[in-house]
Every structure is written in C-alpha cells, then in structure tokens.
C-alpha cells in the first residue's frame, strides 16, 4: 500500500512542479528548489522527490547543472502545455463526447454548454 502512496506522491509532485512552471513561479532557465528542500516542504522521502525530478529531466523539462542544482529548461512551458493538451483530450474530451452522445446532446448543444462553462468560470 505504501508503494501506491509513494507513486501518487511523486506524480502529484511532478504535476505541482509543472503547474508552478506554467504559472511562472519557476521561469525557464531558473533554478527550482533542491530535492532536500522539496522533501522537507512536502514531507516526502528524498527518493520520492527524486523520482519526480527525474521524470521531468527525462522529459527535458528540467536539467541538471552539476554541483549547482536543477533548472527549468528552455521551452519547458511549451512542452508541458503540449503534453497536457494531449492528456486533456484523451482524459476529458473523449469521455465527455461519449457521455453527450449517450444523453442525446448534439455537438452544437455541447459547444453551447462548454461556452457557458467558460463564461461562468
């Protein structure tokens, strides 16, 4: 069971780091907090934090400067947006359209609902 919690924790931390990059809290070419700082801040094992960071390094969102720390890569915002837009489509749009069809909601009605949702937010 602990493994599932660790897995969720490192995915949540990865997504939090991405969110902070998208929000401009960690601009491109700037340093992020160290693994030790993140471990303390989020009360996570350093290995769990390292998993999150390594996923972002592998995705070329972060890069390591030996002896200095981790930095946000040039083009990170664009990469995160592109990845998340693909996930958004498969996670939300496909299921929303499927449910709309089951309920007899036309494409035009669905579009109007979506526009109404944008206006209310």
Number of helices: 5
The arrangement of helices and strands along the chain is: HHHEEHH
Care to count the β-strands?
Answer: 2
Uncertain runs are: none
- The CATH topology of the largest domain is given as Arc Repressor Mutant, subunit A
Major pleated sheet: 2 strands, antiparallel
- Percent helix, as a range, is 55-70%
Q: How large a portion of the residues is in β-strands, by DSSP E? A: 5-15%
CATH superfamily of the largest domain, by name, is Winged helix-like DNA-binding domain superfamily/Winged helix DNA-binding domain
Structural class: mainly alpha
Query: Order of strands across the biggest sheet?
Result: 1-2
Rough shape?
A: elongated
Estimate nothing, just give the exact number of structural domains. Answer: 2
The CATH class assignment of the largest domain is Mainly Alpha
N- to C-terminal distance: 37 Å
Mean pLDDT: 92
Q: What does the model show?
A:
The chain folds into two domains: 2-74, Arc Repressor Mutant, subunit A (Orthogonal Bundle), CATH 1.10.10.10; 77-120. The chain is 69% helix and 7% strand. The protein has five helices and two strands. It has a two-stranded antiparallel sheet. The longest helix has 27 residues, at 76-102. The termini are far apart. The model has no long low-confidence stretch (mean pLDDT 92).
Give the helix/strand layout.
Elements: H1 2-23, H2 35-42, H3 46-58, E1 62-65, E2 69-72, H4 76-102, H5 107-120
Helix pairs in contact: 1-3, 2-3
Describe what is shown at a glance.
The chain is mainly alpha-helical. It is built from 5 helices and 2 strands; from the N terminus they run H-H-H-E-E-H-H. Helix content is 69%, strand content 7%.
